[in-house]
Amino acid sequence: MEPTKTPLKSINKTQLVQVISDRLDITRIQAARFLEVLSDIAVEALTRDHILIIPDLVQLTIRETAARPARRGIGFDKQMKDFPATPAKKKVAAKPVGQTKKVSLG
């Protein structure tokens, strides 16, 4: 018999603001503003340095992949095939740090 899987639940922004305001004894407006400022700082740091480390939480980095030109080659079916060009991409990668690393590794 297969074990039943419980669906993963995440708290939404409203719930996160409520938890922050309760634990820090500040208003919900101040907690929401804190999240906005943190988001602004993250965008600025990633744009400028391509890395952001929030201590004991997460490390965010931007990974860039180079563009690939269109080419003609042999596909999985051993036939000649045209492969389309792919543009350069930027992806944000998150890596656990500190306390979250302990939780993620079990």
Description:
The structure is a single chain. The protein is α+β, with helices and mostly antiparallel strands and 106 residues long. It folds into two domains: 12-49; 50-106, no CATH class. The protein has three helices and five strands, in the order H-H-E-E-E-E-E-H. It has helices at 13-24, 28-49, 99-105, and strands at 51-54, 58-65, 71-74, 80-83, 89-96. Strands 1-2-5 form a three-stranded antiparallel beta sheet. It has a two-stranded antiparallel ribbon with strand order 3-4. Helix 1 packs across helix 2. The radius of gyration is 21 Å and the shape is elongated. The model has no long low-confidence stretch (mean pLDDT 88).
Give the helices and strands as they follow along the chain: HHEEEEEH
Low-confidence stretches: none
What's the total number of strands?
Answer: 5
Fraction in beta strands: 25-35%
Give the distance, in angstroms, between the N- and C-terminal Cα atoms: 25 Å
- General form: elongated
Q: Strands across the major sheet, in which order?
A: 1-2-5
Oligomer type? single chain
Helical segment count = 3
Count of individual domains: 2
- Roughly what percent helix? 25-40%
Radius of gyration: 21 Å
Structural class by secondary-structure content: alpha+beta
User: What about the largest sheet?
Assistant: 3 strands, antiparallel
Q: Residue-averaged pLDDT, rounded?
A: 88
